[in-house]
Fold this sequence. Notes:
Elements: H1 11-19, H2 21-34, H3 38-48, H4 51-55, H5 57-67, H6 73-78, H7 80-86, H8 92-107, H9 112-127
Helix pairs in contact: 1-3, 7-8, 8-9
Amino acid sequence: MTTYLYENDLVPQKYRILVAHRHDTLVRKIALELDIPVQELRRYLIEHLDMMLLENLPARAEMADVHADQDDPIARALGREKFTQYLQILPYAAMEPIFHEVSGRVHAGTPMEDAIAYGREKMREELRR
């Protein structure tokens, strides 16, 4: 009897991808940026991303560093396109309200660092749902 790959548990394979040197470096950078534990981020990525996205995370991150949110400093600091379009860690529908709230806070006079910190907290909440 033939068993198909999609019938197997892919968690060990996904974990091996994420602990490879280049991927591990990126995961640690993202975890530091979002202020969440590395293992928690790894678990989230394993549960929410497919193998192809996991394999290509470092290349996607490099593209995001160059191209994401070039015209909007608030969106770039928050990582709006980086985390939605490029890395696909957060859904666009979850990130847009966060971005608009952070942008509104900055325009209302809140220091950008404080508004971004607030946005990162909201992003962590979305990742933990």
